[in-house]
């Protein structure tokens, strides 16, 4: 019998796995033939994941989990697309997932493209790529404005990434009554975190619905 975890329990499980990954002591759970057979007739993931398509950010590896553990959606820049929202809604409404982690990372190509795109004379990107990353541009402009900068060279891409991460959570809440209602009812928490490529650490940036005072609530971050 599968037991649904609370949002805090799910977050703790992910962080414990990430700590093993950092230390080089990954256990690689749920990756054998027995687990494959166990899942043949159904799934019960304990968390959903929205992350970047970057090849260096493989969720099951960096959280040391396996088959059936994460319901994963990835695209360049962890964007709130229609398909991403629908996939996450499926995880929450039909699979009773208690936690959604939105994972940014440093050295993000989508963020870098958006920062470059704030200039009038920026080299054009292919239309579909530009359409995908364009929603990050306002975050870049906010960072520039808040720091009194006047040129793209003064924009810190890492700060833009954090701003975009918070914006992603807000947009998910605005885009889906299924997600916002689940958070309001205490059935779901959303944690926005950033993955550091150099040491493998996942650092929480903001959250909604998680009873963990060590992670800033999104409402406080947005004031």
Fraction in helix? 40-55%
**How many alpha or pi helices?**
10
Strand line-up of the largest beta sheet: 2-1-3-4-5
Q: What Rg is obtained from the alpha carbons, in whole angstroms?
A: 18 Å
Strand content: 5-15%
- CATH class descriptor name: Alpha Beta
Task: Describe the overall structure.
- The protein has helices at residues 7-23, 33-38, 59-62, 82-95, 109-116, 127-133, 137-146, 157-175, 177-184, 218-222; strands at residues 47-52, 70-75, 99-105, 189-195, 202-208.
- The protein is globular.
- With 223 residues, the chain is an alpha/beta fold.
- It has a single domain (7-222), classed as Beta-carbonic Anhydrase, Chain A (3-Layer(aba) Sandwich).
- β4 (189-195) and β5 form a beta hairpin.
- The protein contains ten helices and five strands, in the order ααβαβαβαααααββα.
- The longest helix has 19 residues, at 157-175.
- α7 crosses α8 (157-175).
- The protein has a five-stranded mixed beta sheet, sandwiched between helices.
- The chain is 44% helix and 15% strand.
Quick structural gist:
The protein is of the alpha/beta class.
List keywords for this structure.
single chain; alpha/beta; Beta-carbonic Anhydrase, Chain A; 10 helices; 44% helix; globular
Provide the fold topology:
Blueprint: H1 7-23, H2 33-38, E1 47-52, H3 59-62, E2 70-75, H4 82-95, E3 99-105, H5 109-116, H6 127-133, H7 137-146, H8 157-175, H9 177-184, E4 189-195, E5 202-208, H10 218-222
Parallel strand pairs: 1-2, 1-3, 3-4
Antiparallel strand pairs: 4-5
Helix pairs in contact: 7-8
